[in-house]
Amino acid sequence: MSKAVSLFMGQDIHRMMEELIGKVQGVISCRIVPDSHGGMAEVHVLTDEKRVPKQVVRDIETVLLTRLGIKIDHKKISVAQFGSEKEAEGQRICFEGISFRTNHTTAEVTITLSYAGRRFEEKAEGVNSRENHLRLVAFATAKTLRQFFGETTELVVDGVMVGNFAGREMIVVGVTVLAHGREENLLGAAYVRGDMKESTARATLDAVNRLCQRHM
Description:
Layout: H1 3-22, E1 27-34, E2 40-47, H2 53-68, E3 77-81, E4 94-103, E5 106-115, E6 118-127, H3 130-145, E7 153-165, E8 168-179, E9 182-191, H4 196-214
Helix pairs in contact: 3-4
């Protein structure tokens, strides 16, 4: 079998998996991330907050095994919960503001976050292209969030996606956390309410906020 045919079949299976996972109770959306051989590297799932993530993961494992005969390692499944955007002061890291400036070929983003009365701020610079703006915002937000983890932790922005759910535009951001020899893939989302850059920062914060609370 040629590599092209194998890749095509892999994409077809991935679509079937995404459709099945999308029918699991509590799942809002699902995206399969393929590996270089057309196989399955990661499964990113966005759910509501009505069910515990472990229950959702177990249901995904069961439905894939019973319907498609596919046994998946639960470590490959990343679950992000998308609920209310109202943040509790003093309990969650809060978004305070964003500054975005351009100078010919360079764009600069400054993100300000707060927690328990303290403010944290970081800047990031990059190529001034429309395609790069949202990714640069996510990178600056991740850079600011790194202050909550310390020098032993790295936050890597995997990607930024603009999509629609229930007739509303939304931003989804993938973040990988590397710490103590372990890797954790996270996903965050936020509805677009006026400014896409601010929504991107909020989606990045949504991806990492629960993990931050474990370190506080």
